[in-house]
Amino acid sequence: MALEVERNLRRFNEIVRGRIRKDLRKFVNHGEMIGRKGRETVSIPVPNIEIPHFQHGQKGSGGTGQGEGDVGQPVGSGQDEADGPGIAGNEPGRHIREVEVTLDELAEMLGVELELPNIVPKGQDSINSVKDKYNTISRTGPNSLRHFKRTYKQALKRQISSGTYNPKRPMIIPDREDERYRSWTSVQLPQANAAILYVMDVSGSMTDAQKEIVRVESFWIDTWLKSQYDGIQRRYIVHDAVAHEVDEDTFYRTRESGGTRISSAYEKAVSIISRDFPPSEWNIYIFQFSDGDNWGEDSKQCTEYLVERLLPVCNLFCYGQVHSPYGSGEYIKDLRKLTDEHENLILSDIGTKEGIFDSIKTFLGKGR
User: Does domain 194-364 have CATH number 3.90.1150.10?
Assistant: First the structure.
């Protein structure tokens, strides 16, 4: 019986995950996830799946096979919805089932649906750092690591077994053979090897709708890259006419009212990479989101930063231009002039939330 229940539960979970895979584009484009559960799982709403079953009515109340009926008479007493508007009732509505899915499962689904190639890391991605953990006991060691409790218990067991222990005058005297010491084992830990820099224009022309697109797309990008690397480091840059390094929460909540100088964000990105992420040891990804507005001749300086300082050290530099009723949308035209000579510069034009799914495939489909 227990095996049958387990088998049925496993089958049910497969059906639910199949539904998630089927509707993955909707979940990606609209961020229809109820919320994160801890660090490794998210909760996703799926339509409740009802198991067919018989429901018995009251005895003698009529129904199929009971009493006389006319040809063509509908079976059952329910009201056809087309007959008119319904009336208020006290029955519960349809419920949505929350299903917890691990981020690894989501990444796998995303990779399959978008046909994303596995990323081939560069640099020192295979190097492991060694960490010592004090998790064992040894018979030898320095006095500073002597384990008093283990030593005492060993001496007590020895005296009891040898008959020298006197309960009336309990005196435990450890000898050299009783002494126990804390010891360690060396554990191989994967070294964090991918750095992601998220850059967003927060000037007055970027509305909350555009920032929601950035938030949703960034979540899925994070999910995929985490499945490809043992460790991820993230940095966040916001800018209007001036750029600032901020934390994740500030990144998604900040809105300014000033003008736009994209080169200030590139200058900040160069500074962060120089400070934290030597390019020979890190796989560096930059994801920039903007509505395409930029000040005056600043695009020329942006090109210099990209060609000379950023594109040579990045696995990918991805620019996503979100449509805004206030932005000019001109900047992506300047970047298109560089794509022929720089394969790691990827551009995506994101009109609405419906474009997020295809934008992720554009960014990550190169397998870099």
Answer: no
Predicted TM-score (pTM) of the model is 0.61
Q: CA distances (Å), 1 to each of 8, 52, 53, in order?
A: 11, 21, 20
**What residue has token string 């043992």?**
230
Could you tell me if 218 and 198 are in contact, meaning their C-beta atoms sit under 8 angstroms apart? yes
CA distance 221 to 217: 6
Q: Are the beta carbons of 314 and 269 closer than 8 angstroms? A: no
Q: Which two tokens stand for residue 318?
A: 């991805």
**What residue ranges do the domains of the chain occupy?**
1-47+96-115, 128-188, 194-364
Q: How far apart are CA 297 and CA 262, in angstroms?
A: 11
Alpha helices in 146-247 (DSSP H): 148-162, 208-228
292 closest CA partner among 236, 351, 246? 351
The encoded tokens of residue 181 equal 């010491």
Alpha-carbon distance 198 to 238, whole Å? Answer: 8
User: If you write DSSP's letter for every residue of 38-106 in order, what string do you get?
Assistant: TTTEEEEEEE--PPP------TTS-BTTBS---TTPPSS-PPPGGGS-----------EEEEEEEHHHH
Calculate Rg over the CA atoms of the chain.
32
Q: How far apart are CA 67 and CA 63, in angstroms?
A: 8
Q: pLDDT tens-digit profile of 325-367?
A: 877 788 999 999 999 999 999 999 998 888 888 998 898 886 6
